[in-house]
Amino acid sequence: MNHGQQSGEAKHEDDAALTEFLASLMDYTPTIPDDLVEHYLAKSGFQCPDVRLIRLVAVATQKFVADVASDALQHCKARPAPVVKDKKQQKDKRLVLTMEDLSKALREYGVNVKHPEYFADSPSTGMDPATREE
Amino acid sequence: MKRRRKARVNSEAPDDQSAAEFSFSLTRVAVSQICLSVGYTSTDTSSTLDTLTLITTKFLQSIAELAASFSNSANRTEANLFDIVNGLQDTALATSDCFPGGSTLHNTESRCLIKSAVLRNLSDFVASAFEIPFAKPLPRLEISGSYGGDSTRVPRSPEMKSIPAWLPPFPDSSLYLERYTKERSDHLWENSDSVIGRGTLVESSGVESSRGRSSGRLPLRRASVRFKVERDWSSGGGGSCKSVTRLERWRDDNDGEFEVKKKMGEEYIYCADIDAGVWNM
């Protein structure tokens, strides 16, 4: 059957692509070391003797962190720049990772990181005296 | 003069705390390297970086837990590529990103993983992103007996195939074999004095004991054991048998009103004596 042959060829191509990807993992050194990844995996009950799979998890984690950081960077750049007095200062703009940008970026990934804006002694602190219930 | 308030010492075991702190600090270094590669130069507070590091560790653990649960559902203890990809898909499900190709994972015809968008994205990332090796070399730990990270463990012998591989290896046989034989020869229960009536049984009833046996093993040809019922006619009809078999009792059942009982021992003596009107202890 023609259709069967085509699907078989496509399957072979897909298998070849997968094999090539797994082989490329051995050439690529992820930022998170293998031993550290193995420690966290063993802590969660994950057992696997294959190094390629450990590297796959490390690469997935690296990609996640890179995506979060790049989203936070976009939020940082999107903020209107403050009034610059010197031209030198404008060139030398430092990109600082702030909690505000991080919480905005993580919200898209389903992680709620929100710091309270201020800490109060009691719920009625700072409220209008007339509205306070005594 | 200001008095510095000392931090309260944690009641947690120092080893666990130091191991957790060590791994956390290593992860923080890796996360800061990734942030540098993205374009950041600094962070405003240390808590920001700590938050991102904590989320990274939670992400790692969540993938591991998902993959482990997938493998356990399939009656396996070791996870494979399918488990990891399913775990990644479920993690991607938690985010708002859509992931085309997720349904093809469970397609029984193709069963091809590369069609999954998550894996494709990872493959593109590996192909395009620059390598960022870890800043400092990690010290190699000598892990004894635990599986975690020990890929050079000695494989088990064929007769121990039933034992799972993730269990720690057996200790050296010389540590326990010698001790075992020593205990066997010294503390054999049959030779100990805790056996009740052993001495009298051997002497009075003329049992051929197997004293010549060695190392606790019973020889194939053992001497036969016979029991004799002796009647002490001098004490007035009371029996003084030490042990009685049913056959012997039936033979002696001439004048006594013995009842057939299944138990052995001194109870029969008491019964006989009560019938005879004499109580012998």
UniProtKB/TrEMBL annotation, chain A:
Signal sequence coordinates: none
Coiled-coil annotated residue ranges, if any: none
Record's GO cellular component terms: SAGA complex; transcription factor TFIID complex
CDD domains for the chain: HFD_TAF10 (cd07982)
Keywords (A to Z) from UniProt: Nucleus, Transcription, Transcription regulation
GO BP annotations listed: transcription initiation at RNA polymerase II promoter
Protein localization: Nucleus
GO molecular function term, any single one: RNA polymerase II general transcription initiation factor activity
Purpose: TAFs are components of the transcription factor IID (TFIID) complex that is essential for mediating regulation of RNA polymerase transcription.
UniProt record similarity statement: Belongs to the TAF10 family.
Descriptive protein name: Transcription initiation factor TFIID subunit 10
Species for this entry: Brassica carinata (Ethiopian mustard)
Lineage of origin: Eukaryota, Viridiplantae, Streptophyta, Embryophyta, Tracheophyta
From TrEMBL, chain B:
Residues of the Bromodomain associated domain: 20-97
GO molecular function ontology, one term from the record: protein heterodimerization activity
Pfam family name, one: Bromo_TP
Gene3D superfamilies: Histone, subunit A
The keyword Ligase appears for this protein: no
Subcellular localization, as worded in the UniProt entry: Nucleus
Entry GO CC: transcription factor TFIID complex
Protein name, as recorded: Bromodomain associated domain-containing protein
Species this protein is from: Brassica carinata (Ethiopian mustard)
